[in-house]
Amino acid sequence: MNISVDLQIAIEDEDQPPPAQIQQWVAAALTEAQQANSQQTPELTIRIVDEAEITTLNRDYRHKDKTTNVLSFPADLPDHIDLPLLGDLVICAAVVRHEAIEQHKNINDHWAHMVIHGTLHLLGYDHIDDDEAEIMEGLEIKALASLQIANPYLEINNNAVNL
């Protein structure tokens, strides 16, 4: 699948995945969301940032003055403009690393989950209510499984039970 990902790296992080792998994760999300058959090449921007930048964006756009792992900003184009712009993802490398360690996950697998999760948000999926969460999580699980990555929600539940 052909995808155009504009990768903006605002920080250097040793755990940050290579661009080709990020594109593979986006493709997995698009495939599971049945967006892979479009005649146009989907485009999105992924910006990898530090905790200060993600906190500022989270405060300014979501009114939550704290760090977060990923923020999604779907493209808001007028109806008469037919472009395959999905929008922008902003991912905080330090938060992804911290969560992976805290949840006993492989860092690369957690990166994949965050990219897929954010891409699904750009496609309009959400997890505000239980029904929406079940649909979105199901797509995430399928996309991750297509990459031979375990269900991240089972791992969270297992870790909670084992603690």
Strand content: 15-25%
CATH superfamily: Metalloproteases ("zincins"), catalytic domain
What is the average per-residue confidence, as pLDDT, rounded to a whole number? 90
Give the CATH architecture: 3-Layer(aba) Sandwich
Radius of gyration using CA atoms only: 15 Å
Number of extended strands: 4
Described by the principal axes of the CA atoms, the overall outline is globular
Classification by helices and strands: alpha/beta
Named CATH topology: Collagenase (Catalytic Domain)
DSSP helix fraction: 40-55%
Q: What count of domains describes the coordinates?
A: 1
Report, as a whole number of angstroms, the end-to-end distance. Answer: 41 Å
**How many helices in DSSP terms?**
6
- Poorly predicted spans: 158-163
One letter per element, helices H and strands E, the order comes to: EHEHEEHHHH
- In terms of quaternary structure, the protein is single chain
Largest sheet features: 4 strands, mixed
- As laid out across the biggest beta sheet, the strand order is 1-2-4-3
CATH class: Alpha Beta
EC number: 3.1.-.-
Organism: Oceanicoccus sagamiensis
Protein name: Endoribonuclease YbeY
Function: Single strand-specific metallo-endoribonuclease involved in late-stage 70S ribosome quality control and in maturation of the 3' terminus of the 16S rRNA.
Note down, in words, how this protein is organized.
By secondary structure, the protein is an alpha/beta fold. The protein has a single domain, classed as Collagenase (Catalytic Domain), CATH 3.40.390.30. It is built from six helices and four strands, in the order βαβαββαααα. A four-stranded mixed beta sheet has the order 1-2-4-3. Strand 1, helix 1 and strand 2 form a beta-alpha-beta unit. Helix 1 crosses helix 4, helix 1 crosses helix 5 and helix 4 packs across helix 5. The longest helix is centred in the C-terminal third of the chain and has 16 residues. The protein is globular. 31% of the residues are buried. The C terminus is likely disordered.
